[in-house]
Write a sequence for this structure.
């Protein structure tokens, strides 16, 4: 159940330039979270901006600790990068609806662009046994930007790495990776489930490709948030049915067909 | 010690009121907030027809507060009455914020909500754009304020609270017009017109371009408006804008507010409502005040030289 509590930093470690994993001790969340859910954090330190910031849960030990992976992009994340073990956050979570695994599928393909990996890694970790094949496609512009958190080797999950400049793995984007996986085997479209997280443009392309191929696709989206529980209506995402969905409460995981991508990309 | 406040004929257990737009329609924070600290919660502004609201991004963190441009997204009066309201279950009063594009719409919606049983007061959001006058807020001039409130008053026996936009020329006249039209109380004030620009993209940050500033940044401005309004009307004034601590709330009461609203602070700190009410109690105890009226508006009277001793 969602609650508001204190999360204490156990460990805050740089993975590569500008990207960190943070282990938090927060039993109220670790005990009952699922892949795709997120937490809202406010650092109990000087200089924190006004609002809490949302982060996907990267992993959970199911009892006391959860991990997040974050990239420094602005004020709150740069403060976080300087926080040490023992320092605390005011935290709300677990929040939102996670991914819904489809056990009738034999193949799961998780497509991560940029900093999109955390919820997908959690998905792979938790649901790998439900599928005959699970593939995690990682995409980034360059080798340096490729985010592979330490310890991310889930047994039974095939990793497919793509960089646009070819400096690591195959040359191409995460989308090329997805097209490859969907295309490589003579799969029935019903046998594949795609889940994706990453930049909005990438998600839109993934959604498009899946629609073309008739493959089911769930995406985890980002929009600026405030309350995280559907009370303030800040986190509007254009809905294909007209009007708006709310990322925090209706999502952050959506069936990709629920989103009006064209309208969202215009904003 | 008694923290009760009377708004019209409705009695609030405490002077702390949840501001419109931050608490959904009432139930959203169930299990997360201590509702017993609240005298009332004001719902998101409800309009006759559903409204989709503005394109994202709808909120921006400016450090000292936030700017929002939600654009009055709401489910509309019939879904509100049929589905939302019957499910509301909170141990404090429920005020419904109403909005409209014409005085007629305000009047209609006031009528609809009056018979529902679960509504304890109406808060009339006169910051909505007046369509007939090119979208200027009704509350920006005394005549349109009067026309809106007059219509609502005719339709309802519920307490009518009018929420005034800040930065209007002649705030006192607008407040008096609302009272002349039959308002039982005033909320001072709504958010302050503001914007933020993304310097990399050289574009306004918000989808709605401009929005309303709330939070810490506006407290001292709202306090001055409350001071001004409380000096010019005799109905209770509910202070709003940037109240984050018990000390902030006490300042508003000393300036003449009978009650106060909190909004943005809850986005940072869900413990704020209880902390504020506790702090208020401690202050009153220390000063030997048994009731809120003992110190309401006291800053306008003689200096407090240290209580009764
Ligand atoms: C459900 C959800 C899950 C997320 N999971 C992760 C994650 O696992 N790892 C991670 O690194 N980031 C994640 N994010 C994005 C993260 O919340 C933002 O990067 C962070 O809020 C930026 O804060 P800041 O103060 O450092 O940046 P600011 O100084 O506030 O702004 C810098 C930039 O970040 C953008 N930004 C600010 N707030 C958000 C937000 N809430 N969502 C998206 N962009 C924002 C701004 O538009 C601006 O361009 C997630 C966002 C959402 C909505
Ligand atoms: C996200 C958000 C939505 C709001 N929606 C409404 C609204 O629908 N109607 C209204 O009258 N005021 C609305 N307000 C204004 C608040 O009710 C309040 O007047 C304002 O935020 C100042 O108080 P604060 O500084 O404690 O937040 C909204 C404010 C925010 C931040
Ligand atoms: S962040 Fe408040 S409704 Fe989603």
């Amino acid at each position: 159940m969602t609650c508001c509590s204190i999360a204490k930093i156990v460990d805050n470690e740089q993975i590569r330039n500008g990207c960190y994993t943070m282990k938090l001790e927060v039993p109220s969340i670790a005990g009952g979270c699922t892949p795709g859910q997120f937490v809202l954090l406010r650092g109990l330190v000087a200089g924190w901006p006004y609002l809490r910031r949302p982060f996907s849960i990267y992993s959970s030990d199911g009892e006391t600790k959860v991990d997040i992976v974050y990239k420094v992009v602005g004020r709150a994340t740069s403060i976080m990068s300087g926080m040490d073990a023992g320092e605390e956050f005011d935290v709300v979570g677990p929040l939102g609806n996670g991914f819904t695994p489809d056990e009738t599928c034999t193949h799961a393909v998780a497509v991560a662009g940029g900093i999109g990996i955390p919820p997908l890694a959690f998905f792979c970790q938790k649901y790998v046994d439900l599928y005959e094949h699970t593939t995690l496609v990682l995409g980034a512009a360059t080798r340096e930007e490729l985010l592979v958190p330490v310890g991310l080797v889930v047994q039974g999950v095939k990793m497919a790495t793509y960089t646009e400049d070819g400096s690591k793995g195959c040359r191409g984007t995460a989308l090329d990776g997805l097209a490859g996986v969907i295309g490589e085997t003579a799969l029935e479209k019903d046998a594949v489930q795609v889940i994706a997280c990453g930049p909005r443009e990438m998600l839109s392309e993934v959604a498009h490709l899946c629609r073309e191929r008739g493959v089911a696709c769930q995406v985890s989206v980002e929009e600026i948030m405030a309350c995280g529980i559907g009370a303030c209506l800040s986190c509007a995402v254009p809905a294909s049915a007209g009007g708006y969905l709310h990322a925090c409460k209706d999502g952050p995981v959506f069936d990709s067909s629920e989103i009006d991508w064209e309208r969202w990309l215009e904003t | 010690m008694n923290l009760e406040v009377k708004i019209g004929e409705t009695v609030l257990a405490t002077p702390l009121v949840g501001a419109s737009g931050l608490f959904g329609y009432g139930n959203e924070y169930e299990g997360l907030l201590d509702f017993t600290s609240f005298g009332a919660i004001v719902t998101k502004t409800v309009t006759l027809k559903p409204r989709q609201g503005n394109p994202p991004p709808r909120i921006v963190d400016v450090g000292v507060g936030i700017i929002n441009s939600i654009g009055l997204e709401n489910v509309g009066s019939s879904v509100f009455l049929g589905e939302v309201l019957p499910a509301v279950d909170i141990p404090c009063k429920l005020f419904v914020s109403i909005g409209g594009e014409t005085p007629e719409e305000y009047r209609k919606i006031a009528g609809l909500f009056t018979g529902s049983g679960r509504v304890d007061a109406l808060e009339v959001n006169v910051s909505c754009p007046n369509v007939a006058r090119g979208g200027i807020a009704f509350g920006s001039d005394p005549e349109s304020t009067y026309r809106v409130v007059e219509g609502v008053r005719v339709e309802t026996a519920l307490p009518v609270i009018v929420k005034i936009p800040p930065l209007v020329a002649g705030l006192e006249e607008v407040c008096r017009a609302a009272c002349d039209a039959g308002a039982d109380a005033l909320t001072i004030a709504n958010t302050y017109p503001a914007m933020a620009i993304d310097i990399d993209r050289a574009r306004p940050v918000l989808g709605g371009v401009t929005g309303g500033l709330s939070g810490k940044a506006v407290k001292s401005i709202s306090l001055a408006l409350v001071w001004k309004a409380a000096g010019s009307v005799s109905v209770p004034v509910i202070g709003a804008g940037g109240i984050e601590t018990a000390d902030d709330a006490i300042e508003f009461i000393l300036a003449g507010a009978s009650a106060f609203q909190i909004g943005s602070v809850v986005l940072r700190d869900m413990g704020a409502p209880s902390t504020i009410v506790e702090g208020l109690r401690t202050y009153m105890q220390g000063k030997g005040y048994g009731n809120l009226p003992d110190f309401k508006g006291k800053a306008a009277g003689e200096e407090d030289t240290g209580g009764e001793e």
